[in-house]
Design a protein that fits this description.
Elements: E1 4-5, E2 11-13, E3 17-19, H1 30-42, E4 45-55, E5 64-72, E6 76-79, H2 81-89, H3 95-103, H4 113-130
Parallel strand pairs: 1-6
Antiparallel strand pairs: 2-3, 4-5, 5-6
Length: 131
């Protein structure tokens, strides 16, 4: 089973780490932001969670405040960090994932356990392929 992975950052600088490209749209419309936040924060089911929090990649002075959990709706895999960067900085999802969210009416369904297991296996395989 294949899944699509939502890209959080636009790139990684070898010295400064992950970053958002200046061309990444920011969601200024409050109603749109709330619809997206609902989807990104509460949509899908958690397939992987790490204890603790990750550092804010934009403002290091905030420390470790970014949630570390990976979720799926059965088609896409994303992280709860997507909601954090939208809520705090206005960064919307990458274009393809954003179009998908809108096409679903900002709603997700809970995938069956077998699909959740397949998503986690897909995630692990893709990580191993990069190693």
């Amino acid at each position: 089973m294949e899944f699509k992975r939502a890209r959080l950052f636009d790139g990684v600088d070898p010295k400064s780490g992950p970053y958002f490209d200046e061309s990444r749209p920011r969601i200024a419309d409050q109603a749109e932001r709330e619809r997206l936040l609902e989807f990104l924060s509460h949509g899908g089911v958690t397939i992987e969670r790490t204890a603790g929090l990750a550092p804010d990649q934009i403002d290091a002075s905030k420390g470790k405040v970014v949630p570390v959990a990976t979720v799926t709706d059965g088609a896409w895999i994303w992280t709860r960090a997507h909601a954090y960067y939208l809520e705090h900085y206005g960064f919307g999802p990458d274009a393809e994932f954003y179009e998908y969210i809108k096409s679903r009416g900002y709603r997700t369904e809970k995938p069956e356990q077998a699909v959740q297991d397949a998503a986690l296996e897909f995630l692990r395989r893709s990580r191993n392929a990069r190693s």
